[in-house]
Amino acid sequence: MAERRSREPGLIDGLTADLGGPRTGALLDRLSAAVDWERLAAPVRELPEYTNDGPGRRPWPATMMLRCLMLAKWFNLSDPQLEESLRDRLSFRRFAGLCVDDATPDETSFVLFRRRLREAGLHESLFAGVVEQLAEAGVLVREGAMVDATIIEAPRGRGRGDGTSTRDPDASHTRKHGRGYFGYKGHIAADLGGVVVDWRLTPAREHEGHALDEMAAVNAWPAVWADAVHDSGPRRERLEAGGTRAWIAYQRRRGQGELTEEQRRHNAAVARVRARVEHAFAMLKRQFGYRRARYRGLERNALDFCLTLAAANIKRGAFLLGL
Fold this sequence. Notes:
CATH class of the largest domain: Alpha Beta
Order of helices and strands: HHHHHHHHHEEEEHEHEHHH
Structural class: alpha/beta
Helix content: 40-55%
Strand content: 5-15%
Largest sheet: 6 strands, mixed
Number of helices: 14
């Protein structure tokens, strides 16, 4: 089944080509050039709704829908806000590939499209595709990976009259710096240029070291930089045995009054490098407004976390490419 087709740009599109916010338009032009969107959309076009030649309503173009999801991430838009912005902002319509008089996807279309991505695991393919293209462009720094994690809070819920609760059953409690949290924990591994190359989303109680072990098992990193929460003799040995230099900060052992001078120097060296991984989380939280879990359930929030990281990588890639 062929995708819906947008109309060819007409007279109205020509007359409005210079309208819209110049800063937003220039930003979207750079982001549009950062990756090959047709290539990113190729796995989506393998879904049955895109390959079925039988009767039925044609799906929205895969490239357009991916671009719309990224717009929602870059500008911190809900589905209703995304629909409204596409109807209202010329720069958004041009970026998505919509002419002025084209039909506009509604919020339900975005909900269904995300569900199809999740069911087929294509959000992971999208993330990997962005990383692959940035690697081919030569902007990845392959000297190793910096790992870190952040707590993504979820609503604690409230009780219902029947004894059940609205609390997310997949989220969990944890404590950090004496404060209690409820939600999830987002784990990332970034190259030295700040591009996220791997990720995990777990309940908040999950120890960060487990995510590092999983990511290290599938990535051939020359080195890894991590904070003291990952300090474990067996973990260091596993990493070193696999050819990965373990730049993991030391923490005091039971009965140890102070770190040795050598350990302090090691920790300072680790901190100087690992501080760069905070830039990725700063983009997610400050620029994208990604501070709390937006859905119920681990699978839905994992898709959301993955798409947010893909959007961050595209924006970081545009900067590294000098666009």
